[in-house]
Design goal:
Elements: E1 10-13, E2 21-24, E3 38-40, H1 44-56, E4 63-66, H2 73-82, E5 91-95, H3 101-109, E6 110-111, E7 123-124, H4 126-129, E8 134-138, H5 145-157, E9 159-160, E10 169-170, E11 174-179, H6 183-188, H7 194-200, E12 203-206, H8 217-232, E13 238-239, H9 241-249, H10 255-269, E14 274-275, H11 292-309, H12 314-329, H13 334-341, H14 345-354, H15 378-386
Parallel strand pairs: 4-11, 4-12, 5-8, 8-11, 13-14
Antiparallel strand pairs: 1-2, 2-3, 6-7, 9-10
Length: about 375
Amino acid sequence: MEPSHSDPSTELLDKDQHPPVLSFSEPRSLTLSVRASALVFEDPVSRQLLKQIERIAPSDATVLIVGETGTGKELVARHIHALSARRNGPFGALNCAALTESLIESELFGHEKGAFTGALSSKDGWFESANNGTLFLDEIGDLPLGLQAKLLRVLQEREVVKVGARRATPVNVRVIGATNVNLEEAVEAGRFRADLYYRFNVATVQLVPLRDRPGDILPLARHFLKLYGDRLGYKEAKLTTEAEQALLAYNWPGNIRELENAIHRALLVCPGDHLRPEDFKLTGLRPPAPSMTASTASLEHAVRQLCERAPPRLFELIEATVLRTALDFCEHNQVQTARLLAISRNVLRHRMGLYGLLPGHRPGTNGGGNHPSAPRSSHASAQGCCD
């Protein structure tokens, strides 16, 4: 998701119909969209979600939206804004993982002229731009720790200090954060500040993945059929019974966004106006849950052999091997590797630096004591894992 202001608002289309549909009032073309563009509330889980949104929206509380990529976190944030007393104010949306660490402070809080090289004029940050409105911070789990402390101060003091400024500027902004990582685990691992987590965790909205609310799959598919069918000139595009069964059987790892893309692609290749299973080119049906024996037996055997040999720095050896393997699997795409390992990109780059996996970096040049040469008691931990 790219940074954006209030230009696509949301609307609950025909709330009295069954099921109600939440969508951008001016949906963008698929080529520009990198977010889920619609939510339906047919499945019982989704109906409870809508009720929760309607309960917390009128308050001014900070909200944390948790869910996998493509589940519609920004849609929920925009709908909370639309139902709040701030509905006539601006709505700002910023992806915290889309900006480099050196730029994100300036983007969030603004900067003064001459604050750094290239700062040719003063600039308001996202907090000032969203004053008297709502600011949606997506992927807050990827914020650097230094920025987390500054963000916490803004939430507590209701004022921002621009880069290069000496005076604070008061702001009146409701903040909605979103993440696809477990922030409690990030707090325990030292990647996220506990006080900031508690500040965000006033009202939590948990978005369930599409595979766990199957009652929404076909209503969403029909919504996207109508949307893209009208754009492509179909009089009445429909799903065959077999296609409906295939959509229900699929696991949808990309959630609503993947379903939207699949419908659009199927309409482009379908020879008629009835979509068949072969028009979707789905990557596979819902896989059975892997058994413990099938999925981890070989891994456990390899770790046990390492424990028997008791090499020095066993944990670092295993971690570095996991990082290298994941990087090779993802063709050294750091964003995809971080997503595969369920960690933030900042954490990934930190660990890569420790093990010399960053281009031009030697092991341990990032500092810290977690690289193999650091005096840690990982050998004792290795003995524990074998006991």
